[in-house]
Amino acid sequence: MSSSVKFFYGEDLPLEMHKVRVVQKLNVGTIDERLAAIKEAGYNTFLLKNKNIFLDMLTDSGVNAMSDLQVSAMLSADDSYAGSATFTKLEDKLRELFNTRYFLPAHQGRACEHLLAKTFLKRPGMVVGMNYHFTTARSHILLCDCFVEELVAEKGLAVTSDDPFKGDCDIDKLNDFFTRYPIENIGFFRVELGTNLIGGQPVSLGNLREVSAVCRQKGTPLVIDASLMADNLYFMKTREELCAGMSIREITAEICKCADIIYFSARKLGCARGGGICTDKKEFYDAIKTLVPIYEGFLTYGGMSVREMEAMTVGLDETMDFDMICQGPEFISHMVEKLLQINVPVITPAGGLGCHLDAMRFLPHIPQTEYPAGALGAAFYIASSVRGMERGTLSEERAPDGSEKLSDMELLRLAMPRRVFTLSQIYYTVDRIHWLYENRKLVGGLRFVEEPFMLRFFIGKLEPVSDWSQKLRDAFVSDFGSEM
Ligand code: F0G
Questions:
Q1: Are residues 335 and 456 in the same domain?
Q2: Which residues are known catalytic residues?
Q3: Pairing state of beta strands 127-130 and 147-150?
Q4: Any atom of ligand 1 within 6 Å of the Cβ of 200
């Protein structure tokens, strides 16, 4: 496993190649405090307050640990509205790493998605092809009265598999896609690295090259969502023969050669907060440029603070270090192995971003219309004070006739913010998952009390369909007492 250290005896453990220099105190709370907190949050982990959470595995977005060099760079930021030297530094770093001449800043990843949708989706009814959607990426397309078609290979939707690149596109489906839509009706093609909603599964460089060749031949811009590129780089380096002899920088350059546009959330890539769009094509830069001061901020900050831009420049550079990018995937893989040993259903192979529990097999008695992944998230919080995120039917939008769109997968994502948690905290999490798995029959479904029309998982409120949360609490108290 990790980096260059080999263990003499015993288990091969993921080893941290950093030390912790700033800490934050945490509390586990009691089972009754957690039950009250989740009730108040409408059984939606997004609406919990941090004071009631022990390990926050909601997301890795904007909560990765920064390095000492990132924090110190923040203090030297050049705070000018226009023409900031901090912006130039960031622009230069992106040019160096991505080989793209132009950079447009935005306040975060979804802002880039908004700008791209506004620029390329000129008429209602246009289509955007992609390996798999991300919630915000799709919402911006739908808000333009356009739609998404997903071309991920069938292997990507198999919950358990040993395929190393489940984020790959099906090239036959891609060719067929171009026969079914006139080219002027296709907005762009989007490939998401480290495919979020199917378990942080990577895309191979080989597949990316094929997709790029088809898109170039047909004349459709290939847009790469590089938000989860750090994990994807690790998997290309360790799982793909084509990349074994390349440095992380070289793999990055090869990825970027395939793209016409690269956008990213710097809340993930670069361990800061912000985002942006890179391209080497002047016509795309010019087309998007005018929207930036309207929606984001002037062209040299785009809604970001200069301090975050300084941290991002350093963070992007640090992403080229294998010791840095291996930490997340190796912790996740270790956690997945531990869960498999006790037969807990998880997505395999382990991906990036986090460990994904398969709620469909964890709670087979809950129908998808009662949100098994959401229920698992609420139940797991009650049992552990660990906060995860639902990635299933709750994260879908209803069809226009009001019927539920059942998602391909029902996942509880336990995100692994990079360099934040220790191995003993991971073992605590595994222990509580084990307890919940033994008591899984007690968990029931959820129904909406307040349901927003779009991205309802963020702020919707729900309630249990029965008194299951109380029964779960009683079982916990009989095993652990009421003080835990
Ligand atoms: N693309 C991907 C692949 C993402 O994972 C995210 C965010 C975005 C775009 C949007 O970026 O949050 O900066 O606006 N994912 C977060 C998550 C929200 O928790 O998975 P953003």
A1: yes
A2: 81, 134-135, 225, 268, 391, 457
A3: parallel
A4: no
d(CA 388, CA 29): 17
CB of 277 closer than 8 Å to CB of 261: yes
Do residues 313 and 331 share a domain?
no
Q: Domain limits at 123? A: 69-321
Which of ligand 1's atoms lies nearest the C-alpha of 228?
A: 3
Based on the fold, state whether residues 298 and 344 are members of the same structural domain.
no
Q: What is the pTM of this model?
A: 0.97
Ligand 1 centre from 225 Cα, in Å? 10
Are the C-beta atoms of 53 and 385 separated by less than 8 Å?
yes
Quickly tell me which residue has 């039917």 as its tokens.
393
Distances, alpha carbon 207 to alpha carbons 152, 172, 351, in Å: 11, 12, 17
The amino acid sitting at 311 is A
Q: What is the mean pLDDT of each run of 10 residues along the chain (484 residues)?
A: 73 91 96 98 98 98 97 96 97 98 98 98 98 97 98 97 98 98 98 98 98 98 98 98 98 98 98 98 98 98 98 98 97 98 98 98 98 98 98 94 96 98 98 98 98 94 98 98 94
Distance 482 CA to ligand 1 centre (A): 37
> Do 277 and 235 lie in a common domain?
yes
Domain match, 85 and 226 both? yes
